[in-house]
Amino acid sequence: MTRLLVVDDEPEICDFLKSFFEDRDFDVQTALSGERALELVETFKPQVMLLDIKMGSVDGISVLRKVKEKNPKTKVIMVTALETTEKIEEAMRLGADNYITKPLSLEYLENDVREKIASLASKA
Amino acid sequence: MAPFIWILLTTAFITLLYQPVNQAYTWLFKHIFFPRRSHTLSALNRLTQELAQTSDLTELANLLVNTMGEVLRLKTVSLLVKEPQGEGYTVVSAWGWRVTDYRKIRFLPGSPLLELVKAAGPQILLREKMMKSLSWQEANQLTKDFDELHAACVIPLWVKSELVGSLNLLPLNSDQRLSEGDFRFFRDFAQTISPSVRNVFLIQQLKLANDELRDMQSQLLQSAKLTAIEQLASGIAHEIHNPLTIISGKAQVLLLQRDRKAFDEKVEEVLKTIVRETRRAADITKRLLMFSKTSASPHEKIRLENILEDTLSLIAYQTSLEGTEIQRLVAEDLPDFFGNVQELREVFFNLILNALQATGPGGKIQVGISFQKPDHVFVIQVADNGPGIPAENLARVFNPFFTTRPEGIGLGLFVIQQIVHRYGGSIRVESEPREGTLFVAQIPLAAPSPENASGISETAGLSEELFSKTKEGWS
């Protein structure tokens, strides 16, 4: 099973993403904060991460930076609401693998996640 | 005894009669022997008092030249005054020559007359005298200056070391010579009135500075108002975006559930509507944010004609509903434009929407894109055959929050202007009542800057998808 970590400070968003991907046989964990996300990166070792750019104390960009430092193999898809293109560019420079804008198209997101997994498998 | 009494009586007689006799003598002197001189002096005295109480430059100048002209029986008098901004001097008022002429008379530093006046200090300059001491060329130039002022005599007005202006006059008879007494009189007179002229000049300068400050203040207020709107828009957009994501996400979870037997067709239709409508709402919040966005966005190579087509298909539904005729006039050899897609879309969209709203059902709109090769400028024109913009509103159409539509927020044209200015271009409006309105935006072809050239385009995610979806839905 593919391990997927959903990071968003909005519990309802984590909730529907979890049920959507669990319905598709993913192993899903959620984190409501950047701190919790970094803990889970250590313990849960996700293969793919859905990471909200804008969060409270530790924002998506700094989580991304740490994840890519520690485990560059983890695929990170940034989730953005209305962030400026500069923010998105910064995330892409820091090694984000893609970004998707809210409101989410779950079909598009699923395809993208599967694509990332496929690229992981082909490299392995 | 007798002589003593006589002396006493005489002294008393003289003492008693001195005052009335003196008065009578003065009266006779004033009114019979030198009536003009006395009248002149009292009139000029009154004039200096009145000048000191005047705060308006034109009023002061008119009063001064008219009184002088009349009282001193001159052929011409004019008042040259330092301009409140800059180093030049302008004729503010004149007596004896046509009113329309003097408004244009200006002397800039370096003009022969002005330099001579400055060099001469408080001395009065006489045309005839000056000419004798100059070379033929210099005299020629100076003649022009004197001719412009219609004057033969220039009386400088100094306050300490500052030349505030000059009185320029021509006596009634050209051969009338000014006596030494006249010179003394004019020098004194100039000294008396110079402070009044300078005060009025300073007041004018203050007025201008005040106007400038007031303009600046209103600009600041407007930008503060705009910042508030921007913050509000961005806040609303963010706040609404998350709930929309949740509503749409949960509906999609149900809709895309693998075990689909759980609900019937009707539920599926409802869920699809929820997803579609939340996307529409999200699109509105994005648009709201776009209106408020002022930060620089990535630039890329774009084709303006494609942007025009995108925009037209976006409003195709509305135009077909209203039977609007849209004519495209796109030049064939347009070069690539380097800019931000969203911003250019905004320009076209707002201009065309504006025209659509102006014409109403059955209107005609022309949209033109051309390129001026010599200046490397793109020209975007949008014309409509609507009712036109009233002259009193024409200057305000680009002001933020100016709108004549009750449901409008008055940001459309303002945003366009901001965008066009950001590209170093300009936008103007021409309108004839009952004829229609024409907007002309001119945007220079800019060279791609290296930091922008590598900007990623927003093709992933939902934004592009949304745009095309809306397109499909409307066309």
Structure description:
The complex is a heterodimer of chains A (about 120) and B (about 475). In chain A, helix 2 packs parallel to helix 3. With about 120 residues, chain A is of the alpha/beta class. In chain A, strand 1, helix 1 and strand 2 form a beta-alpha-beta unit. Chain A has five helices and five strands; from the N terminus they run E-H-E-H-E-H-E-H-E-H. The two termini of chain A are about 15 Å apart. Chain A has a single domain, classed as Rossmann fold, CATH 3.40.50. The C terminus of chain B is likely disordered. The radius of gyration of chain B is 39 Å and the shape is elongated. In chain B, strands 3-2-1-6-5-4 form a six-stranded antiparallel sheet. Chain B has a five-stranded mixed sheet with strand order 8-10-11-13-12, covered by helices on one side. Chain B has a two-stranded antiparallel sheet with strand order 7-9. In chain B, helix 1 packs across helix 2. In chain B, about 55% of the residues lie in helices and about 15% in strands. Chain B folds into three domains: about 180 residues, Beta-Lactamase, CATH 3.30.450.40; about 60 residues; about 180 residues, 2-Layer Sandwich (Heat Shock Protein 90). Chain B is of the alpha+beta class and about 475 residues long. In chain B, a hairpin with a 4-residue loop joins strand 10 and strand 11. Chains A and B meet through helix 1, helix 4, strand 5 and helix 5 of A and helix 8 and helix 9 of B.
Quick structural summary:
The complex is a heterodimer of chains A (124) and B (475). Chain A is built from five helices and five strands.
Beta-strand content estimate of chain A: 15-25%
Mean pLDDT of chain B: 81
For the biggest β-sheet of chain A, the strand order reads: 2-1-3-4-5
Amino- and carboxy-terminal Cα gap of chain A: 16 Å
User: Any idea what the CATH superfamily of the largest domain in chain B is called?
Assistant: GAF domain
Number of domains of chain B: 3
Largest sheet of chain B: 6 strands, antiparallel
